[in-house]
Amino acid sequence: MKEGIYLIDKPAGWTSFDVVAWFRNRMSDVGDRKKPRIKVGHSGTLDPFATGLLIIMVGKKFTKRQSEFMKLDKDYEATLKLGFSSSTGDPEGEIIKNSKFEIRNLKREDIEQALKQFVGEIEQTPPVHSAIKIKGQRAYKKARKGEKFEMPKRKVTIYELDLIDYKFPEVSFRVRCSSGTYVRTLGQDIAKTLGTVGYLTKLRRTQIGDYGISEAKGIKNYEKE
User: Fold this and answer.
1) Among 24, 38, 83, 200, which one has the highest count of C-beta atoms within 10 angstroms of its own C-beta?
2) Which helix (H) or strand (E) holds 61?
């Protein structure tokens, strides 16, 4: 395995750091402690439950381009479950059924109309269970400790937001968005617009700039190299 740019199809259950660590271990000479560890970076965090495209940069020459990749627009496919909430906005949190919301009468047209409201520049409040730093510490670490703090709002751009399928209580959609967009938050906001709550059961990143998931390989493909 050489220094360069690698397109990875991240599996569910792996963190982005797990993938970085795997590449670093593959590239390091554990028998030579005097040899500096090779630099490895990634193109933007994917939550453990999420799958899809992760750009891995191996070597100092390529990790210098990390900020370039981080700023690229991204495409995702997601599934939102209505009528249920999660403390983290995804399957890893505490799931609560909210029976007070009556959503069985929602039609496909209602979903499509709600999605249209989010196209363009919008304001988001990132989830507390995120990697954003608050006073030098990751928000998710503070949240796990039970600390109370306020997440700063941010403006992001939704270029395209299309309904893939709707089978009660699940809504599948495709989104093309600017860097910094939290799709977990987008899902929760869509549910709120529909008069209910919701959380993402699935999330897959399919595009980063001009790089597509069809060009990516799974970790197992590199184990033989």
Assistant:
1) 200
2) helix 60-63
